[in-house]
Amino acid sequence: MAETTLPVELIVLILTWLPVKSLIRFTCVSKRFHSIILSDPNFAKSQFRVAHDRKTLAQRLLYSSTVPKLESLDLDSPSFKHPSSVRKHKLPSAPAHDDVLPLGSCNGIVFLAFDDKIIYSWNPSTGFFKKLPDPGFSPNKISVYGVGQLPATDDYRVFVVSTDYADDKNELAMFSSRAKAWKKLEVDFDEFCFCSNQGIHLNEALHWLDTSKEIVAFDLGQEEKHKFRKMLLPRDFNDGGGDYYENHLGVSAGGYLSLARNLYVCGDSVDIWVMGEYGVRDSWTKRFNLKFSHPPRQDWNFNSVLVLETTMVAEIYVHKRHEIGRGLVKIGKKEEDTRSMYKDEGDWLNMIQYQESLLRIED
Q: What are phi and psi of 227, to 5 degrees?
């Protein structure tokens, strides 16, 4: 019987329907498979588009530690706290430094900062690692940041604010993957005081909560006159608890801006508002309450919080007599969604969500 060979076009079409985890394994099948999966940017875009449309993109939580260490957790796995869901990452040719700061992710591409001025693009799924040009900052601290993409031009952008706390001076800059360069921004930044460092990416803009109880947005597509704009919080948003409550921005299912509020100490639930029509204050709706079904019995408090589509992941400190146990907890809409994982190694500096993909910043 004659051997049948499938046309290359059909092979590629079949491969685009497979998840990234399987495709990485299949790179060992042949040189052709290796080339298609890891070297063809058009295949990477097609595979990501198919997975996005089918809603099958694998979601992971990446967090950094002072050990130093980078690890990720499978957000879709029911065994959130099980060691099998943990993936340890090793960066190729990374600079020797104790702290690694994830600035954000977009389409599976993660941007990392070392020593507050050396920045790389990295795909945790494929291992692609690329140093970006020197942004030209003074040796200050990256205090505010965010990443996103302009789909029309396939341009990835990285926004950073470098702060000199001694002189109370800020430098703002934005990187463009298409221009392959940084651009310093002349923006009035001193009037803002953001509640969090990382900007939430939605509708080609980054968003932060300001202490003035407004949302501050920066449009990544601005090319000449750069400025921030403001959006209002829900009319029924009651922040009477003052310092006892924490507020967080996120993106809910369907791609809507969401707002979460939780009690800072020993709070067993989180209220979620969703903005149904982008930029319209009256479209905010209080959608649901996330319940922490099995909170620690000891005193504890939230440290950092990441609001996801239908869940919330938080780093918590549990106070046990003279010891403090650190851990991650996942709080979902259903009681069975609550999963916790406690660890005692180092301090978590930052955590971001990323999607598994084959994409990378091209040379």
A: -160, 160
